[in-house]
Amino acid sequence: MAKIKITQIKSVIDRSERQKRTVAALGLRKINHSIEVEANDAIIGMIRKVNHLVAVENI
């Protein structure tokens, strides 16, 4: 599988509880925090739900 880098670019303040939990489940803690994960269907689905809060790069 390909690895991707996910960076939180916007705050989760004033977002729905579901979006807050999705960002936390991805492992993001605060703005400009980045993680590298394997791209699988579950991760891609979570990214689609919060794509307005994160930036994604292929590695």
UniProtKB/TrEMBL annotation:
Keywords, comma-separated and alphabetical: Ribonucleoprotein, Ribosomal protein
Q: Which residues form the Large ribosomal subunit protein uL30-like ferredoxin-like fold domain?
A: 4-54
Q: Give any single GO term for biological process.
A: translation
One Pfam family this chain carries? Ribosomal_L30
> Does this UniProt record's set of keywords contain Ribosomal protein?
yes
Which cellular components does GO assign to this protein? Answer: cytosolic large ribosomal subunit
InterPro entries in the record, alphabetically? Ribo_uL30_ferredoxin-like_sf, Ribosomal_uL30_bac-type, Ribosomal_uL30_CS, Ribosomal_uL30_ferredoxin-like
GO MF annotation terms: structural constituent of ribosome
What do we know about how this protein assembles, alone or with others? Part of the 50S ribosomal subunit.
The family assignment reads: Belongs to the universal ribosomal protein uL30 family.
Q: What is this protein called?
A: Large ribosomal subunit protein uL30
